[in-house]
Amino acid sequence: MEFAELEKWIQSYGFRSGQAMMLWKCLYGNNSWAHSYDELTGLKKELKKMISENAILKALSVKEILTASDGTRKILFTLKDGQVIETVVIPCSRGRTTVCVSSQVGCAMNCQFCYTGRMGLRKHLSTAEIVEQAVFARRLFSSEIGSITNVVFMGMGEPLHNIDNVIKAAAIMVDEQGLHFSPRKVTVSTSGLVPQLKRFLRESNCGLAVSLNATTDEVRNWIMPINRKYNLSLLLETLREELCSKHKYKVLFEYVMLAGVNDSIEDAKRLVELVRGIPCKINLISFNPHNGSHFKPTPEEKMMEFRNILAEAGCVVFLRLSRGDDRMAACGQLGEPGDIRLPLLRVPEQFQMAV
């Protein structure tokens, strides 16, 4: 529940709204992040009793925590129905620690470079199941690696395919009396669902990342099938129009670099033109190999060359190298498809050699 809903719920049992704020702070603020009724400190006995009879404080159970050689943690959570989701905590030496949350079990988008995409969509996560990933990250790791400052909706799933729960979860995360993440430090990623993208930009004050990954419709139709419904021209024109009314707001473009597919000098020059007129930053992401894909990562020297072309044209651009890939915790590596997998799409003839 958002706070207004929680307040109404508490009042419906005859308690004052002040008690609702105390409960809210037990759940999300004051560094308590309560998961049991015993941790609801400062609440009246009668209120604790009512909560224990009518509410569940915990939506997830920790199944396993894996630690990569670079300090990245991957948490496997079990849901009430037994399905498993994955959350990643990424420490950074510059004092920023990011939690990467999932929004679905699996994903329907079938992006060809993504391991989660092999799973197909199995379930939308509830608001509680999304928020609790951030709560658990703070409970488990704040004392060990310091404050968790950033949230990215870049785990399993297409966040805007589950837009109602994602917008609500993001609102809870940025509430100043609760988890109090800065809206600038909560970023929701999308493969490009245009109607939902419009709604998100109008209803949420959090950041938006768009997974672009190609500079032509031909390539994007192959590696990101959603492009067949919402092509590059429609996606980018929508962003131009919507960002006109957003003050000091920049969209983040994510570009996973695939050797021989989208990493040519011509691609770099086309990308400069595609994003012209859109307030943005660009992340060039190293592809993380997995057994669900035949792509190969672009060599680092070629990534630098690609980056330099963008930078010289005036783009704000960053290289994002792999984190946690030795524990399958890196970008595009989450999930466990099992025996039933979505099919890989036919490779266009001119890219046969690349894969």
Notes on the structure:
It is a single chain. This protein is of the alpha/beta class and 355 residues long. 32% of the residues lie in helices and 17% in strands. The chain is built from ten helices and twelve strands. It has a ten-stranded mixed β-sheet with strand order 1-2-3-4-7-8-9-10-11-12, covered by helices on one side. It has a two-stranded antiparallel ribbon with strand order 5-6. Strand 3 and strand 4 form a beta hairpin. The longest helix has 19 residues, at 127-145.
Write the layout of secondary structure elements.
Layout lengths: L2 H10 L4 H12 L16 H10 L6 E7 L5 E6 L5 E7 L7 E3 L3 E3 L14 E4 L2 H19 L4 E4 L9 H12 L11 E5 L3 H10 L3 E5 L5 H7 L8 H12 L7 E7 L7 H10 L5 E7 L13 H13 L4 E4 L35
Parallel strand pairs: 4-7, 7-8, 8-9, 9-10, 10-11, 11-12
Antiparallel strand pairs: 1-2, 2-3, 3-4, 5-6
List the defining traits of the structure above.
355 residues; alpha/beta; ten-stranded mixed β-sheet; two-stranded antiparallel ribbon; 32% helix; globular
